[in-house]
Specification:
The chain has 3 helices and 2 strands; from the N terminus they run H-H-H-E-E. With 77 residues, it is mainly alpha-helical. The protein is globular, with a radius of gyration of 12 Å.
Length: 77
């Protein structure tokens, strides 16, 4: 798996992405109950693959920071 620039991802890349998104959530960027950008938008923003974003969102869900609604998206908890 590689980043958009071709550099290899570290094994914990999804944790790094999750931490960055968590910082944005805690800063209030999305508002309470606000919708996060779509997975493709997050891929583009972080230069990460879909698998990294999927794992990052699951990590945020486990942390209690987001709620994932199938077919609707991810929202701040």
């Amino acid at each position: 798996m590689t980043a958009a620039d071709g550099a290899p991802f570290a094994l914990d890349e999804f944790l790094q992405v999750a931490d960055r998104i968590a910082e944005r959530i805690k800063a209030g960027e999305f508002g309470e109950g606000g919708r996060l950008p779509s997975a493709p938008q997050l891929c583009e923003h972080y230069g990460a693959g879909a698998g990294v974003i999927r794992h990052a969102r699951q990590e945020l869900k486990l942390r209690g920071l987001i709620v994932i609604v199938p077919g609707k998206g991810a929202f701040t908890a």
